[in-house]
Specification:
The complex is a heterodimer of chains A (203) and B (475). Chain A is of the alpha/beta class and 203 residues long. Chain A has one domain: Aconitase, domain 4. In chain A, strand 7 and strand 8 form a beta hairpin. The longest helix of chain A is centred in the middle third of the chain and has 13 residues. Chain A is globular. Chain A starts with 6 loop residues before the first strand and ends in a 9-residue tail after the last helix. With 475 residues, chain B is α/β, with parallel strands linked by helices. The radius of gyration of chain B is 22 Å and the shape is globular. The termini of chain B are far apart. The relative contact order of chain B is 0.13. Classes of the chains: A alpha/beta (203), B alpha/beta (475). Chains A and B meet through helix 4, helix 7 and helix 8 of A and helix 2, helix 3, helix 5, strand 8 and helix 10 of B.
Chain lengths: 203, 475
């Protein structure tokens, strides 16, 4: 059973940059791991740490003024490589939701499969969130998955966000795609037995 | 009459195992269960799903449709020796053990079929029109050049495919990118794709599956088509595909996994029915004139930051939003380049000729034509990394190895190499590398490495001069 998500109310870490690729979120050289655990230290590794391992003071993830379980990022977050390690690392670091105006497709799938909620908002609303956090790092953001709402109490703004009904149920109940697809195995066999024009494997 | 369908729709629809409908909206409900014809696996994105299969006591559902090789974390030198780097060795050993335990044939180091997943699929004839192909690697889009739906997946999805040979998937939108006309001198398929991404950005294709069409695409070889489809992911697209034609069939015929005899005739007949119907509708269309494309080069830290090689690097004023300006400033600082100046003539430290984008035999033949009888500049290190053991064999059989040796290039064994900094081949911090690979992200080729993406011939020309060079000068 996976972690369930419903309501999140938290301060947020803002990363005011667009097109953040998964090589930044989780650098390639750490892909040599054979487990899913212990990846939090590698999150944004080269942004957070100097080559000698000391923290880069100027990086916002190292700034004690910012924190919380929400990450707010510029558009096209998670573009590039398909590595699911990016979603694992974000989740293990303590993030439950990522807010942006758009996400890389594969990253979005990976996040949804790992109890990390990608919340897509308009560019206009994203800008307001960034401005609010800049104005006050302790700004609270509220996310209500059941009602598909995101609130910024300090500005008295409430907007709806889209999420697929199936994925919403999975996140709220901690379900797994694999459980569902395994339950369809008979249908899969039936498909194999009745299909035409399959030239994948030589006879 | 049936509704006209796109190539994508035809292949997608014929692989739907189950599609539920939302009774209220009458729209497609759950994601579809899509059957996967071929699953390519490698050492990096499989240890976790295999561990999970063991935990759940599950088997690999269709071992014959699972194709395994070693490519990402392996060294390209002294491959006959045990892998020195401990984590890489453990990862490769995990794949070997998993393939053995779950009954999957593995084409590992030393096997004649070994190579980069996206190079060996087409080379062995595994990749064929009308198929669905996935791999835990975003450049799986490469296989789309044969008219199949091929896309990269995450590790949880790798596990789904191992366990059920199927995947839960939302149907993406479709996009047609039509390129008509004649390509200019020195312009190759890599320039086409870098040009498209520079126009529509790294998110221009998000949520879409792209079909590349038009006379300029028709005119390309299969290898060149693969380069284009390979980089579809760099515009955010789920994948890219090209309608199969005679060139496609000629390429496949006789390969290890190609149909034979009567099966072949039946296959070709089916494949001929796959191209998009004339009046099929796409959700998005983009038309490009081949004549507008020049040899391309990137100056920044994402593949959308490309310019024509004769152009100047943009300045902050060229960008409208604060967010774009921030991305530009960060990129230009990382690359240590001057806005408003030309990249042409900028000194280069490394040239990387390889990766799933450009490491097929055709790429090396073109490179060899340019460097034959010449020597690399003293200030550059040139890595030549074949995409597969077979490509390396062809390089030697055709005598290209001598040309590279005489030029001072370092020809090594097959693997992903310096495309991504996760094996021994890394570009040192601060060094500039003209690379035939697909990504110029910060640290992609190693921490602090500065990547300049280019075509194989532009990279070869730059290797000879030791600076960013317009290949048209040497043609």
């Amino acid at each position: 059973m996976k972690k369930t998500i419903n309501k999140i109310s938290s301060t947020a870490v803002p990363l005011f940059l667009e097109n953040i690729d998964t090589d930044q979120i989780y650098p390639a050289r750490f892909l040599r791991t054979t487990t899913k655990e212990g990846l939090a230290d590698m999150l944004f590794h080269d942004w957070r740490f100097n080559p000698d391992g000391t923290k880069k003071a100027e990086n916002i993830l190292n700034d004690p003024n910012y924190g919380g379980e929400i990450l707010v990022v510029g558009k096209n977050f998670g573009c590039g490589s398909s590595r699911e390690h990016a979603a694992w690392a974000l989740s293990q670091y303590g993030f439950s939701a990522v807010i942006s105006s758009s996400f890389g497709d594969i990253f979005k799938h990976n996040a949804l499969n790992n109890s990390l909620l990608p919340v897509e908002v308009s560019e206009k609303f994203l800008k307001i969130i960034f401005e609010e956090i800049e104005h006050n790092p302790k700004t609270i953001i509220e996310i209500d998955l059941q009602n598909q709402e995101i609130k910024l109490p300090s500005k008295k703004i409430k907007v709806k966000f889209e999420i697929d009904a199936y994925k919403k149920e999975c996140l709220m109940k901690g379900y797994d795609d694999l459980d569902y697809i395994l339950s369809m195995k008979e249908k899969i066999k039936e498909f194999e037995n009745t299909r035409e024009n399959d030239f994948s494997l030589p006879e | 009459m049936n509704t006209p369908k796109t190539l994508f729709d035809k292949v997608w629809d014929s692989h739907i195992v189950h599609q539920s409908f939302d009774s209220q909206s009458k729209q497609e409900g759950h994601p579809a269960i899509l059957y996967i014809d071929a699953h390519m696996i490698h050492e990096v994105t499989t240890p976790q799903p295999f561990a999970d299969l063991r935990k759940r006591n599950l088997k690999v559902f269709r071992t014959k449709r699972t194709f395994a090789t070693e490519d990402h974390s392996i060294p390209t030198k002294d491959q006959q020796l045990p892998i020195r780097e401990e984590m890489s060795r453990r990862q490769v050993e995990a794949l070997r053990q998993n393939c053995k335990d779950f009954g999957i044939e593995l084409w590992g180091i030393g096997h004649k079929n070994q190579g980069i997943v996206h190079i060996i699929g087409p080379q062995l004839g595994i990749t064929k029109p009308g198929m669905t192909i996935v791999c835990g690697d975003s450049h799986t889009s490469t296989h789309g050049a044969f008219g199949c739906i091929a896309f990269g997946i995450g590790t949880s999805e790798v596990e789904q495919v191992l366990a059920t040979q199927s995947i839960l998937q939302y149907k993406p939108k479709t996009m047609n990118i039509r390129i008509d006309g004649k390509l200019g001198k020195g312009v190759v398929s890599k320039d086409i794709i870098l040009y498209i991404i520079s126009k529509i950005s790294t998110s221009g294709g998000t949520g879409h599956f792209v079909e590349y069409s038009g006379s300029a695409i028709k005119g390309l070889s299969m290898e060149a088509r693969m380069t284009i489809c390979n980089m579809s992911i760099e515009m955010g697209a789920r994948g890219g595909m090209i309608a199969p034609d005679e060139k496609t069939f000629d390429y496949i015929k006789g390969r290890l996994y190609a149909p034979r005899g009567k099966e072949w005739d039946k296959a070709v007949e089916h494949w001929k029915s796959l191209p998009s119907d004339i009046s099929a509708k796409y959700d998005k269309e983009l038309i490009i004139k081949a004549e507008d494309i020049e040899p391309m080069i990137t100056y920044g830290t994402n593949p959308g930051m490309g310019i024509k090689i004769t152009q100047k690097i943009p300045t902050e004023q060229d960008f409208t939003s604060d967010a774009q300006k921030a991305v530009f400033q960060r990129a230009i600082t990382y690359m240590d380049l001057r806005p408003g100046t030309k990249l042409l003539g900028h000194p280069v430290d490394y040239v990387f000729l390889g990766s799933c984008t450009n490491s097929r035999i055709e790429d090396f033949r073109k490179i060899a034509e340019i460097v034959k009888g010449k020597k690399k500049a003293k200030n550059v290190i040139v890595l030549v990394i074949p995409g597969s053991a077979e490509v390396k064999k062809q390089i030697i059989e055709e005598g290209l190895d001598k040309i590279f040796l005489d030029a001072g290039f370092d020809l090594r064994d097959a693997g992903c190499s310096a495309c991504l900094g996760m094996n021994d081949d890394q570009i040192p911090p601060g060094k500039y590398c003209v690379s035939t690979s697909n990504r110029n992200f910060e640290g992609r080729q190693g921490p602090g490495a500065r990547t300049i993406l280019a075509s194989p011939i532009t990279a070869a020309a730059s290797a000879l001069t030791g600076e960013v060079t317009d290949v048209r000068k040497v043609l």
